[in-house]
User: Which sequence fits this backbone?
């Protein structure tokens, strides 16, 4: 197995244990992370996102597969199941990740998932009816950024 594939597996094994410190140890100091909610996190902000999410996780489980990597790029598929703390609703989020590597660590991490599908699960009928609207998706992003700022300030 390529060392970068092992690094991806190490990242997700740490995530399965909700070990944000071990997850962040897989990243370069200048990591660039994005997904449909957190569209551009860099450096400590990316680490704080994982620290926030793992510290708040309820009824959490994660499986991953399709790990592939070479010297510069990699990818994986993962599925997280958890209780969304703000509504108490159960979410199963199916995610495809892409990675870029530098000096034996992840320097770029891009997660892709269907935000409307997520909003239907997390917010129920409101997410189903309104979750495709850019206004609602931007509100989800704004609230997530606000929660991350509050979490980071408490450190």
Assistant:
């Amino acid at each position: 197995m390529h060392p970068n594939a092992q690094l991806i597996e190490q990242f997700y094994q740490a995530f399965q244990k909700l070990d944000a410190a071990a997850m962040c140890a897989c990243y370069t100091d200048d990591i660039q992370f994005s997904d449909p909610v957190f569209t551009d996190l860099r450096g400590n902000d990316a680490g704080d996102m994982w620290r926030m999410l793992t510290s708040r996780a309820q009824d959490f489980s994660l499986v991953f597969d399709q790990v592939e990597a070479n010297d510069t790029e990699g990818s994986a598929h993962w599925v997280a199941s958890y209780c969304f703390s703000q509504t108490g609703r159960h979410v199963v989020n199916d995610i495809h990740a892409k990675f870029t590597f530098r000096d034996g660590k992840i320097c770029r991490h891009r997660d892709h998932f269907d935000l409307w599908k997520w909003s239907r699960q997390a917010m129920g009928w409101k997410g189903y009816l309104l979750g495709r609207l850019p206004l609602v998706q931007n509100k989800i992003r704004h609230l997530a950024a606000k929660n991350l700022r509050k979490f980071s300030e408490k450190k």
Summary: The first strand starts at residue 27 and ends at 34.
